[in-house]
Input
Amino acid sequence: MRRESNKNQRQSFAPRCRLTNRTVWCMTVAVLLVATSPLIGDPPKASPPAPTPKSASTPAPSPKPDATHGKRVQYDKGILIDWSVPQVEITARVAQTDRPVELLICSEKTKEHESVLVTNARPKKIFEALGLIGAAAGKPGSFDPTSGKITPASGQALTIDVSFEQDGKTVRKGAHDLMVESKTKKPIGSLPWVFCGSSTLDGRFAADVDGTIACVVDFSTALIGLADSHTSSDSELWLLADKNRVPKQGTPCTVIIRTKESSTPPPAQPAPKLAASGVLDLTLTPEGFFQLGDDVIDALALDALVKERIKINPNQKVIIRPIKVELEEARKMNLFTRLAGRAIIGSGINADSLSIQFLDEPPAKPEQPRRIAKPDPIPWMTVIKSPDAWLAVQPTATPPTSPESVPTASPPASPAPAKAGSPTPKPTPAPKPEKP
Output
């Protein structure tokens, strides 16, 4: 029973990626989504519109599941996707109610004393979920010390609401309603939230390190920020938690995030016109998209296309190759091309019908032969000159017993003869005894 439970648990969550480069990580998300697409449900027969990558950090958007599968999907711990809107819902709790704030929501054990809410959901998984509902990541705010220029955060415009239970009723407020201005204590209007997408920090997803999920001041690691700039200096924090509107500390709540466009759905766009037959010749991009002729499709759209093709031709041919990159990145691109090939096989393509092409990789560095240190030779001259000193440091060694090695006593030196013509030294007379 335990093995079966663990197996079901592994199948109910998307695989976790652990790569350091933001671009490579996003490509991994897109590739592995192909293998996990049955969890969400078979995509509709019509292929979704071709996405336009706006940033290397933006995951490929995903189509909504059809009505035969659930509209609300538990994506990861503390993260739920409601495809009917679409929106991302994050479980959280109130961190504090009356102090200056730098964040609306942060990760556990990071900045709870400076945040209104705290959650145990991973920022990296929130990033993925927002990408799946179509949010395009931009960049966090930055400051150039040389020119003194401040660049505010950019990205997909978002709306954030918070819901919680109060007096037996479910209350839903805009995130801005939980804060007031620090100096005037007056309410603030709606905030210009943007999906800035965080960054990498020492090879890790920066928001995972700092816990900066939704920030109201400038953070270079922010996952969600504001389109206008505000300093993070403690003495100049511009917002304060509103104790009159924030429920008591520890109150469970739900943070609801959606793109601004989701409130008024855009008109449906025609699906890309893909060839109905023939070989699928795919080029994998560093952002995790697939180029098919003049079209660009994401991983789930490719999965839907492959399944449609298999219904018509079970021996559908597929060719996949990585796009050309710098030589030092070729090894990494080849690795993810292999992963993409495995995902395509998982969609139903026969292994014999799949052809994978790779880039030339830089030559491996030859291994240097190991040098074996030779033992030091026995210092015979030291033994000969000073056998006692050598025996003191080498108690187990036996010095040679040849007569040459044993020192002999030297005879006393005779006085040197006097040179010719030199005066003979007079003997020193003995001292006379003193008279009494």
Summary: The helical segments are 2-11, 22-40, 123-132, 206-210, 299-312, 330-346, 380-385, 387-393. Residues 87-261 form one domain.
